[in-house]
UniProtKB/TrEMBL annotation:
Protein name: Tryptophan synthase alpha chain
Keyword Amino-acid biosynthesis included in the entry's annotation: yes
Gene3D superfamilies xref list: Aldolase class I (3.20.20.70)
Spans traversing the lipid bilayer: none
Amino acid sequence: MSGNVQLLSDTLAGAKAEGRSALVAYLPAGFPTVDGGIAAIQAVFEGGADVVEVGLPHSDPVLDGPVIQTADDIALRGGVRIADVMRTVREAYAATGKPVLVMTYWNPIDRYGVERFTAELAEAGGAGCILPDLPVQESGLWREHAEKHGLATVFVVAPSSKDARLAEITAAGSGFVYAASLMGVTGTRESVGDQAQDLVRRTKATTDLPVCVGLGVSNAEQAREVAGFADGVIVGSAFVKLMLDAPDEAAGLDAVRALAADLAEGVRGAHA
């Protein structure tokens, strides 16, 4: 099976055709367990997520705030491996037929082997990878293999990115562009703010790729705000926190399903 970059593109285009932003959810693999992580992804899809990013737990995260770090630590102590990440992608995609990406730092892929990683991700039905710490100028090998296997390469842009740098990043990417709404790490925020809107405007000036905004969105009101100017709204920490705070797994699944439904309503409300 080749990768599902086309499914990702079609899903984002479909949301746009409906006059709304796409809802993109993030959940780490192996949290609270491998099976529990797969169930959580299915729950957010049931709630109304269009796309899911599966986090590959890493011991030295650069972008992830304390909530996701805590979940990653639980997954790593549970012994999660790249094989479990691939299984998570495979089962989530098989159960839903919706686009599933992996979000990972570069080091685990480098150690695992780029050809092996891209081949296995495509075989699992993955749509691509979000690579927050891979510099575009060092991404040639990855992009060659990703393209060969039909996988999207999603790069992250930040408010600090200059216009020329944005053009360089977006020219190398595929699938969509991940716009980090503010400087700093992931986590819920009181406000997503004007920085994100300005970044989306500047990014869109360089590319026809959809631009999805993450870092800080945690409720329907914020989702509605971001959906007013972005092609997709990315929510991670808010889902993970619900799973962390739940008294048991069933309650966690109910909570993330309900949040996804709330956020899905929010992304639709922006254009109503």
